[in-house]
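Fresh eyes needed here. I'd like your take on this protein's tokenised backbone:
***
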Amino acid sequence: MGDPLGLLSGLKVLDLTHYAAGPYATRMMAAQGAEVTKIERPGAGDPARHIGPFPGDDPDPEQSALFLYLNTSKKSITLNLNTTSGTETLKRLLVSADVLVENFQPGVMASMGLDYPQVESVNPRLVMASITYFGQTGPYKSYKGNSMVGFAVTGQMHMTGDPDKEPLVGAGYQPEYQAGLHAYDAVLAALYWRETSGKGQHIDVSVMEAMAYYHEFAITTWTHVKALSIRAGNNYPVGNHPLTIYLCKDGYISISCVTPRQSESLFLLIERPDLIDDPKLGTGTSRWENRDEFDEIILPWLMERTMDEIVTAAQDLRIPCTYVPTFGQLFQDRQLRARDYWVALEHPLVGRHTYAGAPFKMDQTPMQVTRAPLLGEHNEEVYCGDLGCSKEDLVRLRERNII
């Protein structure tokens, strides 16, 4: 049996983050058992609460799909950090905290008296992670960013899309999620170092650097041989074919053949063993040079078969092949279901919905996921239970717009 409390049980994290990058980092800490307290603006909360989609297209800040996904397993309190009382209250919370994560623009924390030297004076063992698009220093530090900026400025766009068209933006919030992953890694490393040094430290995470790290092989290719990683659409620019996506009877499948043995197996699969010795199509390089001719041969065979039929037969012959699922098909995928990947959570307003589970399995400290909090849901628990405030104190703090 694993530890039901989780790997990070006992760790106290104060979450000053909003939107995607920071909440993604603290989401993983919470799923590992850390006590993550999300600190939100009174009345408005995390701006992600106002980003859809919403059930029934009703823009209820308690029902944002983005917020509910990024803030599972956390507590929520409200606190106005634009007031002296608010910042002083945060410092009281910092005394017993292990980690502080924030993703304000550079300089904002300092303007509130909450930059690292200030919080370190309150708690020298505190690990503080600051996540921004370009980092705390450098000529871009004050530039505004978003996902498109993250894809563009790091060269990812240059590598994505069809070769004869403009660069293509990637899907979703991947730049922010990459920064969140690295913030999570860095926090764990800093906590490990704290065990021997007794000291906390400040972590400066840049979305730009996280995404540039994401494609380090392309950078290495450039520095070693001055070769550009060009846009190639659904074909890998490595002189092999097929390494691409094909349409079949009921959807799309990907096929990757990079060795002679895989090529021969593919010819047997499509019932064309005569192609093995064909000088124009027998090798990956020759098929790349004559890929339109090869595709004319394979496409009719694919269009007569379903994704499942093709993938099963190809994998039996050890050909790297898989289907390209829609989200509906992904939820029904037998591999993910067999590994209990999906997690169903009940929310008092949204009802029961399915969420992504853990990206890895730990046999002793499995990840635990609970629903996202309502705005300020844990005010009484934290302020009264942790700081010793009375309920009358909470009323006064609300009246003064501090919580």
Q: What stands out?
A: The radius of gyration is 26 Å.
